[in-house]
Design a protein that fits this description.
By secondary structure, this protein is an alpha+beta fold. The protein has 2 domains: 194 residues, no CATH class; 137 residues, no CATH class. The protein contains 11 helices and 14 strands. Strand 9 and strand 10 form a beta hairpin. The chain is elongated and about 105 Å long. The N terminus is likely disordered.
Length: 419
């Protein structure tokens, strides 16, 4: 005779178990999904920021003058002073760790300081040495950069940034050899450049700059032998931080500044900046893993709980199998396999969904200029995907340990009692 109530009870039990399994599996899915998405977002931010420093000489430093904070050798506190051309030769001879040294003059940016025919523009004016591109690289789009002869002969030539070219010339017009008027003085254009590095702009973005030989700028601006900034790079096997204090000490001694005056020589240490950025992203990645693993662990606990419920509901089945001579290992393997299957399937679907979402975001962002935009290629490394897969498998095994031990405690007499 058909027992409707019995079949309804069976159907409710099956439905309840499926829903419980689905919700538990979703917890694992969501945990690994969030871990992948957050890690991908973190790597995207890191790629975007680091790409803006791509090519920059990490082992470099820039030195600027500041007012003195100590009275010394008859000079009063608060004295203004300047770097001079002679400082370059002194540093070259006394600091053997230096690979490149470049003086800089910064002319600022005034309204309509640049004129060409009927076009006007406001751009940064810089005086540089040909060694400067070894520190802050520039892509030569047209012509050439400043050379040694330009410096020695004080040629009235200039190199313009890409934005200057776009604003002051027509499309496809050749600027090489043409004249441009900067602060009332004409210069012949010898090259067009674009900065490789976008996140470091000493004296303004080189894309919007007009670059003169520093000796020419000293002469035309009546600056004598004054230098605004000294840029240096140490050899690759020598940390610039080890050279930094030595350079400061020499400059202080040369200009009669107190050795303990920490204000007079200001500097920008690229090595320290890169280390700070690296430490920040290390902390971000650690936080992402903590949050992601916490979410994943909650899902694994759910898997363990549902396997405990499963063992309790299958007490009769397990007890009968034990009475018929089933070995403990076979029961252990059965429970572990179910736990591993539930965790790994849900986890791998979460991993695939996370990677798929990051790929869609990457395609949506399209091609971006370096350093422009908040994310750049938000993808997780292959090593992280492998690590996530290993964590999933280990989680599935761990989730099945306690339920499996519980199953081994079931005896044949329990099956009779269940009956």
């Amino acid at each position: 005779m058909f027992d409707l109530d019995r079949w309804q009870e069976i159907w409710i039990t099956i439905t309840r178990n499926k829903m419980r399994s689905f919700l538990t599996a979703f917890g694992v899915f969501w945990g690994i999904f969030m871990l992948v998405v957050m890690a991908g977002a973190g790597y995207g931010m890191q790629n975007s920021i680091i790409s803006g420093f791509d090519g920059f000489a990490v082992n470099s430093a820039f030195f600027f003058t500041n007012r003195t904070s100590e009275a010394y050798k008859g000079f009063r506190k608060g004295r203004s002073w300047d770097f001079q051309n002679e400082d370059l030769s002194i540093l070259k001879s006394q600091v053997k760790e230096l690979q490149y040294i470049s003086p800089m003059l910064l002319g600022g940016r005034r309204d309509n300081n640049t004129v060409r025919q009927d076009k006007y523009g406001s751009f940064h004016i810089k005086g540089l040495h040909y060694n400067y591109t070894k520190i802050d690289p520039l892509d030569i789009l047209k012509g050439r950069f400043i050379n040694e002869i330009d410096l020695e002969e004080r040629r009235k030539v200039c190199v313009i940034g890409k934005k200057v070219y776009e604003d002051m010339f027509d499309v496809d017009e050749n600027p090489i050899g043409q004249l441009i008027k900067v602060n009332g003085i004409y210069y012949s254009i010898i090259g067009v450049v674009e900065p490789v590095v976008t996140n470091v702009n000493i004296g303004g973005n080189n894309r919007e700059a007009i670059i003169l030989p520093y000796t020419v700028m000293q002469q035309t601006y009546n600056r004598g032998d004054v230098i605004d900034c000294i840029a240096i790079t140490a050899y690759s096997n020598i940390p610039i931080s080890d050279v930094e204090e030595k350079v400061k000490s020499i400059l202080k001694q040369k200009h009669s500044i107190a050795p303990n005056d920490n204000q007079a020589v200001d500097d920008f240490n690229a090595e320290k900046m890169f280390k700070m950025i690296s430490n920040v992203f290390t902390g971000v990645n650690v936080l992402i893993w903590i949050v992601g693993l916490g979410t994943l662990i909650s899902g694994v606990v759910g898997v363990s709980n549902i396997m405990m419920v499963t063992v309790r509901e299958r007490t009769k089945e397990i007890g009968i199998r034990r009475a018929l001579g089933a070995k403990p290992l076979s029961i252990l393997v059965q429970i572990m396999n179910e736990s591993l299957l539930l965790t790994s399937l849900a986890g791998f679907f979460g991993l695939a969904a996370g990677v798929g979402l990051l790929s869609l975001v990457d395609m949506a962002l399209g091609e971006q200029e370096k350093g422009q935009g908040f994310f750049l290629h938000p993808q997780i490394p292959f090593s992280m995907a492998v690590t996530a897969a290993v964590i999933l498998l280990a989680s599935g095994i761990i989730a099945g340990i306690i339920p499996s031990l519980r199953a081994l405690q079931v005896k044949a007499i329990d099956a009779i009692r269940e009956e």
